Hints:
Blueprint: E1 27-31, E2 37-38, E3 44-51, E4 58-68, E5 97-110, E6 116-123
Antiparallel strand pairs: 1-2, 1-3, 3-6, 4-5
Amino acid sequence: WNPMNPPSATVTQRSLYNEIARKRAASTSFIKSDGTVSGVPTNVVDFSFTFAESEAVGPLTEMGILGGDVNVNMAIRNPVLPANGTYDPTVNTVGLDSLANYLTFPAINKPATSTLSWVWRLTF
């Protein structure tokens, strides 16, 4: 990987390449077509995340949303290797995470003196 020009995700992407932090979404919200929060489920969902000063410190080049039986322990993950390996339907992933969405970007160096927050919007 060139950290200033990481490769795009592929259809076989199964996990992050160099995961340095993991946490649950701080909040989720259904969004109406006018962009406001809905009190009932819609086809648009916002996931909000915040990493405090001491969390996710270092160069960030990728992020993803995990689904399935996600554990905040980064050692407990989908066992498909390599990370971009071919999907094998015989691998039992019960109790493990599944990559639901993934993004790469040029390196963002997060120092221990900053907080990083973002909203990830998925439309179904």
